[in-house]
Design a protein that fits this description.
Elements (H helix, E strand, L loop, with lengths): L3 E5 L3 E8 L11 E8 L1 H12 L2 E5 L1 E3 L2 H13 L7 E3 L5 E7 L5 E7 L8 H6 L1 H5 L3 E5 L4 H10 L4 E5 L3 H4 L11 E5 H8 L6 H14 L3 E5 L5 E5 L3 E4 L12 H14 L4 H16 L11 H13 L2
Parallel strand pairs: 1-4, 1-9, 2-7, 5-6, 9-10, 10-11, 11-12
Antiparallel strand pairs: 2-3, 7-8, 12-13, 13-14
Length: 310
């Protein structure tokens, strides 16, 4: 596959603690603690690489131990890290999550302040790489000024957005129309559109809001209630049967990787939604933020199991 995707955004170390028993607040809970590379853009890049796509990452790293570890782990799975910005004396991004005994995230803290140090000059120096990408994926962990610079400077590639969270989505609200494709969860979609999503009609209304702003395609994920998609010509709701979660922290990133992968191959929207659901299901059944079992063949098998259970 000669086409490639450039991802611009967070790359960090994920520290995840999972309780062995029901969580007791304001107390020390016995559990397990793991450390791996994370960050929305980096996670999407790893999922894409495992699916067989070419992914190039632009992020800001410190020259600290975590920065070196992030680079090492990414290169091991085949992510092109050559284009990252490394800040002398900088502290690399860190994400800390507390999961309950069922694998549901109950609390998280993120320090991605180093993304504020990513110079637009560095992006300009990488203009040939960015401009010749088939798709450029941004995550809303980037500063608003950086997102504005990218949208105003690079007009060739299709721009995709992952809002990351309600907190991060605030500063992209007025920029949303600059993106070809946006992937949101229900809460992010409600916040950005102002529509209380309770039924299919409200999904249509929320999706319509993004299209009116200039977005060409929107996906709204709703856990085991499925995924809604909408373009100017079609809309649909694809089912996603429940699967017991092990770790949900990487599900949204995996779903976005599915959208990008299918877009690169020219798949239609219903198939893209179904494929992306399967990618997310594989992710949540893994202890790791990105499943080591992620590959195109396993996704196709997961789609077969999903179809058999609906």
């Amino acid at each position: 596959m000669s086409k490639y995707i450039t991802l611009i955004g967070a790359a960090n170390i994920d520290i995840a603690g999972r309780s062995l028993n029901p969580l007791i607040r304001e107390d020390s809970n016995p559990g397990s603690i793991s450390l791996c590379a994370g960050g929305v853009s980096r996670n999407i890049a790893e999922n894409l690489t495992r699916l067989g796509a070419r992914a190039k990452l632009i992020s800001a790293l410190g020259d600290d131990a975590f920065g070196k570890k992030i680079t090492e782990l990414c290169e091991l799975v085949g992510i092109d890290m050559e284009h990252c910005y490394v800040k002398d004396g900088g502290s690399s991004s860190t994400y800390l999550a507390i999961l309950d005994s069922a694998g549901e995230m109950k609390l998280a803290l993120s320090d991605m302040s180093i993304l504020e140090e990513l110079p637009t000059g560095h992006l300009y120096r990488k203009r040939h790489l960015i401009q010749n990408s088939e798709i450029v994926v941004l995550d809303a962990g980037l500063p608003k000024s950086t997102i504005e610079y990218i949208l105003s400077t690079f007009k060739g590639p299709r721009m995709f957005l992952d809002p990351v969270s309600i907190g991060k989505a605030k500063h992209v609200k007025n920029l949303i129309g600059g993106f070809d494709t946006v992937k949101l969860n229900r809460l992010e979609a409600q916040f950005l559109s102002g529509v209380d999503i309770t039924c299919r009609d409200s999904l249509e209304q929320a999706g319509g809001y993004f299209l009116q702003k200039g977005v060409k395609r929107v996906f709204i994920t709703m856990g085991d209630k499925g995924v809604f998609f909408k373009t100017a010509g079609e809309s649909g709701l694809e089912p996603s049967p429940h699967v017991p979660p092990v770790n949900v922290t990487g599900a949204g990133d995996a779903f976005m990787a599915g959208i990008v992968y299918c877009s690169l191959q020219g798949k239609d929207n219903p198939y893209t939604a179904r494929f992306s659901c399967a990618v997310a299901r594989i992710a949540i059944m893994s202890e790791s933020t990105v499943s080591p079992d992620m590959c195109a063949d396993n996704v196709l098998r997961e789609i077969e199991q999903m179809e058999a259970s609906t």
